[in-house]
Design a protein that fits this description.
Oligomer: single chain
Number of strands: 3
Number of helices: 3
Distance between the termini: 12 Å
Strand content: 15-25%
Helix content: 40-55%
Shape: globular
Radius of gyration: 12 Å
Length: 80
């Protein structure tokens, strides 16, 4: 369905906040597809972008914040 493909609207709020790093959790089993075109658009504003299964994305967020990275955003797809 529509919510299984990353679209710019899903990360719009994170982009507006201008983080140094954006972590995208693409679902428990990685079912959320992240098209290259959308990722390229995101990377035009946020150079450091990670796409990981949501549990790993949450760990990456904690790791970066714990290491002192100040502006880290996490957008997590909670299902699939």
């Amino acid at each position: 369905g529509r919510w299984h493909v990353l679209c710019p609207e899903m990360v719009e709020r994170a982009i507006v906040e201008k983080p140094d790093v954006l972590i995208i959790g693409n679902g428990h089993s990685g079912a959320l597809k992240c098209p290259d075109g959308v990722l390229n658009t995101i990377r035009a504003s946020i150079p450091e972008v990670y796409v990981l299964p949501t549990p790993e994305a949450c760990m990456k967020y904690s790791e970066l914040v714990g290491a002192g990275k100040r502006r880290v955003a996490l957008v997590a797809h909670g299902t699939c």
